[in-house]
């Protein structure tokens, strides 16, 4: 048997931490001298400590490790835990890489003298369109693709010939982090059936739309909305309806997000002041 001090030196774990392991039931001493209160550990527990340290370095919490140890070191259970942790780490790396890309884009954006000057904003009228419509509350804007997949699959199964333009319409009065009211529409030729979720409707004409084209990732569309806000404020326009977006190029056609092309349309009316924020990115 090894005294706690000797065990600490051999495992390179502090006495304070070994006592904490005991308190939480992670690694109780093999024996305690009832007269002196000294803690003693077995040589076999050295391997257990090394395993605990390794699992901690991999990001496992004490409760997870303790649960596994209570199962007498079940190898199958450990393999499952390691596989789950591997997936979690891979997801974290992906998220961090996305953050790194965004930092790079922000640096590039901030080095430009005036990002709002990258856009040409024009006024145009938009005619009415007969469309297939699917409207739903989705968890967040980045879940919009699920709606497009559903309505596109419906059109394909029913042999519907799709035409341009195809709109996404954002019905919320302001920007929302979650529970977003989004409608996707497909302009089509001829007749089309309906379902419980997908309906045929006429998308109303808009006499006056402020329109711009955004080239680049969806995540950078906030600067496009900023440009629209600056233009509207400077020219005395206010919003008069829901924002529309036409995705001319996206992940379905381009490998590089820098090549995405989105058309943003905002119904406007003269003589109203407003603020505008990103609806889709």
UniProtKB/TrEMBL annotation:
<dbReference type="Pfam" id="PF06445">
    <property type="entry name" value="GyrI-like"/>
</dbReference>
<keyword id="KW-0175">Coiled coil</keyword>
<dbReference type="InterPro" id="IPR009061">
    <property type="entry name" value="DNA-bd_dom_put_sf"/>
</dbReference>
<protein>
    <submittedName>
        <fullName>MerR family transcriptional regulator</fullName>
    </submittedName>
</protein>
<dbReference type="InterPro" id="IPR029442">
    <property type="entry name" value="GyrI-like"/>
</dbReference>
<dbReference type="InterPro" id="IPR011256">
    <property type="entry name" value="Reg_factor_effector_dom_sf"/>
</dbReference>
<dbReference type="InterPro" id="IPR010499">
    <property type="entry name" value="AraC_E-bd"/>
</dbReference>
<dbReference type="Pfam" id="PF13411">
    <property type="entry name" value="MerR_1"/>
</dbReference>
<dbReference type="InterPro" id="IPR000551">
    <property type="entry name" value="MerR-type_HTH_dom"/>
</dbReference>
<feature type="coiled-coil region">
    <location>
        <begin position="79"/>
        <end position="113"/>
    </location>
</feature>
<feature type="domain" description="HTH merR-type">
    <location>
        <begin position="1"/>
        <end position="71"/>
    </location>
</feature>
<dbReference type="GO" id="GO:0003677">
    <property type="term" value="F:DNA binding"/>
</dbReference>
<keyword id="KW-0238">DNA-binding</keyword>
<dbReference type="GO" id="GO:0003700">
    <property type="term" value="F:DNA-binding transcription factor activity"/>
</dbReference>
<dbReference type="InterPro" id="IPR047057">
    <property type="entry name" value="MerR_fam"/>
</dbReference>
């Amino acid at each position: 048997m090894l005294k706690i001090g000797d065990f600490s030196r051999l495992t390179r774990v502090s006495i304070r931490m070994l006592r904490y392991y005991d308190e939480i039931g992670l690694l109780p001493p093999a024996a305690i001298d009832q007269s002196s209160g000294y803690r003693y550990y077995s040589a076999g527990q050295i391997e257990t400590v090394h395993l605990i340290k390794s699992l901690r370095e991999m990001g496992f919490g004490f409760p997870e490790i303790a649960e596994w140890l209570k199962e007498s070191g079940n190898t199958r259970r450990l393999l499952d835990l390691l596989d789950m942790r591997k997936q979690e780490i891979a997801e974290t790396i992906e998220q961090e890489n996305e953050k790194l890309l965004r930092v790079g884009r922000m640096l590039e954006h901030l080095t430009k003298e005036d990002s709002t000057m990258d856009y040409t904003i024009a006024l145009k009228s938009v005619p009415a369109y007969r469309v297939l419509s699917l409207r739903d509350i989705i968890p967040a804007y980045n879940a919009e693709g699920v709606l497009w997949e559903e309505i596109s699959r419906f059109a394909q199964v029913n042999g519907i010939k799709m035409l341009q333009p195809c709109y996404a319409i954002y019905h919320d009065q302001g920007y929302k982090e979650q529970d977003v009211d989004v409608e996707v529409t497909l302009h089509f030729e001829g007749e089309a059936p309906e379902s419980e979720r997908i309906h045929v409707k006429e998308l109303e004409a808009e006499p006056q739309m402020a329109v711009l084209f955004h080239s680049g990732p969806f995540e950078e569309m906030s600067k496009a909305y900023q440009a629209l806000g600056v233009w509207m404020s400077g020219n005395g326009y206010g919003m008069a309806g829901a924002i529309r977006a036409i995705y001319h190029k996206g992940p379905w056609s381009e490998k590089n997000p820098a090549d995405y092309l989105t058309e943003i349309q905002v119904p406007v009316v003269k003589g109203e002041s407003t603020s505008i924020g990103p609806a889709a990115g």
